Amino acid sequence: MNRPELQTVAASQQRVRERVGRSLRRRYRAERRFRACGLGAVLAGVLAVGGLFVSIVSTGYSVFWQTRITLDIQFVPEAVRAGDFTALVRAALRQQFPEVEGRQDLRQLYGLISDGAGYELRDRVAAEPGLSGTTAAIALLAADDVDQLRKGRSDRHAPEAERIISDRQLAWLDELDRRQRIHRQFNREFFTAGDSREPEQAGIRGALVGSFLTLLVTLLLSFPIGVAAAVYLEEFAPRNRLTDLIEVNINNLAAVPSIVFGLLGLAVFIQFFGVPRSAPLAGGLVLTLMTLPTIIIASRAAIRAVPPSIREAALGMGASPLQMVAHHVLPLALPGMLTGAIIGMARALGESAPLLMIGMVAFIADVPAGALSPATVLPVQVFLWADSPEPAFLERTSGAIIVLLVFLLLMNAAAVILRQKFERRW
Amino acid sequence: MQTSTLILVLLALSAVAYQLGRGRALQLVGGPRRRRDLHSLPAYYGLLTAVWCGLPALVVVAGWQLLDDRILTALVVDEMPAGTRALPPGELSLVLNDVRNLVAGNVAAESVTPAVAAAAQRWRRLDALGHLGASGLTLAVALAGGWLAWRRITPRLPARNHVERIAERVLLGCSLIAILTTIGIVLSVLWESIQFFRLVPVSEFVFGTQWSPQLAIRADQVGSSGAFGAVPLFAGTLLISAIAMLIAVPVGLFAAIYLAEYASRRFRTLAKPVLEVLAGIPTVVYGFFAALTVAPLLRLTGERLGLEVAAESALAAGLVMGIMIIPFVSSLADDMITAVPQSLRDGSYGLGATRSETIRRVVLRAALPGIVGGVLLAISRAVGETMIVVMAAGLSANLTANPLEAVTTVTVQIVTLLVGDQEFDSPKTLAAFALGLVLFLVTLALNIVALQVVRRYREQYE
Predict the structure, then answer these.
(1) Which domain holds residue B66?
(2) CA distance A187 to chain B (A)
(3) Is A411's Cβ below 8 Å from some Cβ in B?
(4) What is the pLDDT of residue B421?
(5) Where residue A396 sits, what CATH number does that domain have?
(6) Could you tell me the residue range of the domain that residue A128 belongs to?
(7) Considering only alpha carbons, which residue of chain B is nearest residue A349?
(8) Going by DSSP bridges, is the β-strand pair A135-141/A65-74 parallel, antiparallel, or unpaired?
């Protein structure tokens, strides 16, 4: 062997190694960049979730407390009999600040207490007729602007022209605070009152009942129909044009925009069949058509997960196909079907676009009495409040969203628990 | 009789029919001891009787419920004075509304014309008569059906086969609802759209660049030309969807790649549910988030940079819509990536490729058709999304490509045209259905293509 040749081989090997090393460094850098991109994307998603929750909770948590002003109400029997409870509230306010005079000033003073305070007193007297003729210290609902100020939602140090609360009102409030007449307490009315034009009196009871009725109609229709359709398609359907068509339709309907279902509801259920507008029945029918694909697809997966050996055993023992399905396949597939139904219901609970089309977006102050009376649902209530100009509705909107999210969380948790507890691995 | 009571009565009758049918079958063979002589289990004879008792009667009830309003209206209109009947449809429906309100007791009888009062009287009479007739008919059908089935029972009657055939028909009927829904959608949007295109030519709708659906009430009214050119809406929808996809596709895809290929088990079990939370949040919440947080934030940032950002900019709506679609893209991409066989990866590693090179050149290329299908589905989502744009995008139709300006979309216009009072003969209401038709056709095309692509891709590796 001669050395120069060896040397050139060694040198070329060296060069190759250097080149590979350089390109490897480049490739590893690219690898790290790629990986960082991936991690960044996941973190961006997590950040979006965090940002959403922080912004909703930070604007909405304060809705669960409400400012109340305690006043000594003299239940003058004449006023009680005449039903003029607003006058009682005003008299009590004047009694706190006897020095206030003049219509303008008095109106400002009266503005501290909500317009609904009179109704509160009326209900109070109706519950306790003995109050008439006595004097009692009663915590009355403060006006929404006062409430927002006390919660720090509006800036008390802003120049007076930019504030809704005037300097005089501020002074009265501070004085009331000094007399320990301003309290915060749990906002029960938010859960027991219907909608109102006045933010401090508005509650979600009507929307909750409306959502419940709508979902009840949806569940009662979509679960049996969905399960029946799934059973047919999985266990009985021959493979022919018709069943292919059904399958294509189900898959397509699952991806049709929800608002199109609203158009269908408007044209078919309300225009053609004369279902009353704004009624939970109409909403439930529309949501049934929307959730059916979800339930059918989930139920089919659950039925498919039941092993064939069970079917064969049942058939071998002489069961008819329907007996096999009803006695063996369905009980085993039920947890999976229920999970699908709960997830479908959760989606229906959050749906609002198609309900706008069928008139569930009207202002309805009463709590709906049945599936045929006008109603609205929780997400649509959110939409309505989000549109309102009063700043105090911002807090109500976020509060309603928090309630909605809690319900969705509970439903999804129920689905997860159901799946973990009852789902069998074969 | 109230419909609910009627249904309860029917259920009770069916229960009785069940007992009777079962009893008769047993009695025919001479008691429970000899039930082996029956073709089917005794319960099937009961079921058969109950089904024949309940099912036809339920069909009658349903038919009456669906049609009574129309029949009543037709009958009442028929008896109205000729002058009223000759009114144009719009005014006639107003008169009928008066009648209905009077019947429901919403208005006092003194406040309406004698003709309306007379019509209401007739309505009440016919309604009562109809209810009575329908209830009677239903009960008669139930009894007749039950009796016929009961009489036909013999020991050799294959009751189980009969019951099963009926049950199978019912199951088939339930699965046909999917087809009926599609037909319902097509008919409802198509019918009103045809009415619309009678008033407004198709070419103006598809190519016109002016959208201002408010019709002028007075001739000199400003801004109410009644123009129905939908190009600005299509452009706005495209702009917002494009922004959303620019956010959702890269983020969703990279997140799926990271979670499927890089992340440790623990990280995946933590991060995946968090991303899935995004998919479960109602769209109205996203809309509120866009209007409350994102839009002001963008406006503030724009001011810092010296840019004019509209309060209802396309960017804010698109951004939030993108966030909404991230989990959709990532879960579909995740499915597609995990469906790629490990042998392809191993081959690539064996040739000395790094992980990212394997992912980019092998895994993604193999999964591409599936991912494209998923992205198409996501686009159809974005195009049809309603609440976010209703709450965060504008109302006025601007033809612009600037994401900082306010644009409006097809779905926003459908909602604004249909919320509130609707008259089904004004082009304003009908325009919403024409827009709905376009929306349905576009999303249908996207869905069909996407589902085909995804299905073919799945078959490739299964």
Answers:
(1) 3-157
(2) 22
(3) no
(4) 64
(5) 1.10.3720.10
(6) 65-186
(7) B282
(8) antiparallel
